[in-house]
Amino acid sequence: MSVPAAAPHLPSDPGMNASPHFSPGSLPRRMAAIVYDCLLLWGILFLAGLPLPIVPEHVREHWVVQTLIQVYLLSTCLVFFGWFWTHGGQTLGMRAWQLRVVGADGASVTWRSAVIRFFSAMLSWAALGLGFWWVLIDRQKLAWHDHLSGTRLIRLTKSRKF
């Protein structure tokens, strides 16, 4: 006698329900969430950069210091996205546009997957956004960074209460 397979577990959020069929997030929703997140990230990077003028200008001009500053700001971006993706699967922009990132099996995103997703999303942008446009021709509606990180961006639907 066989036991039926359980539906994939999805991270829960009061008032939201994700279909076990993983309805993919559309390109316009993805882009809208990115715009929201960029506005928030701009503010965070502004705050993260406040201590930088303390470093004397002649020191800041050295290539090693400039590289360290760039790594610091890139790390700030990674922590921003990684923390949201691993703690509920939603950035604020994704929450506004009812999107959530989950693992391929519907489980929560791990830090390993979040790091791979972050850097492969940079690859998607570096190819003039082609990695994002890929959702328009992909059978599963996945972007390059979804494929490379083993994650999925799904659209959430409001649960109906009768």
How does this structure look, described?
Mean pLDDT is 88; it is low at 1-20. The chain is mainly α and 162 residues long. The radius of gyration is 18 Å and the shape is elongated. It is built from 7 helices and 4 strands. Helices cover 51% and strands 9% of the residues. Helix 1 (27-49) crosses helix 3 and helix 3 crosses helix 5 (111-126). The protein has one domain (17-154). Strands 1-4 form a two-stranded antiparallel ribbon. Strands 2-3 form a two-stranded antiparallel sheet.
Short description:
This protein is mainly alpha-helical. 51% of the residues lie in helices and 9% in strands. It starts with 15 loop residues before the first strand and ends with a strand.
Question: What labels would you give this structure?
Answer:
162 residues, mainly alpha, two-stranded antiparallel sheet, 51% helix, elongated, disordered N terminus
Describe the protein's topology.
Layout lengths: L15 E2 L9 H23 L7 H4 L2 H24 L5 H5 L2 E5 L7 H16 L3 H4 L10 H6 L1 E5 L1 E2 L4
Antiparallel strand pairs: 1-4, 2-3
**Helical percentage:** 40-55%
User: C-alpha Rg, in Å?
Assistant: 18 Å
Helix-strand pattern, N to C? EHHHHEHHHEE
Structural class: mainly alpha
Q: Total domains, how many?
A: 1
Tell me the overall shape.
elongated
**Beta-strand residue percentage:** 5-15%
* Total number of beta strands: 4
- How many helical elements? 7
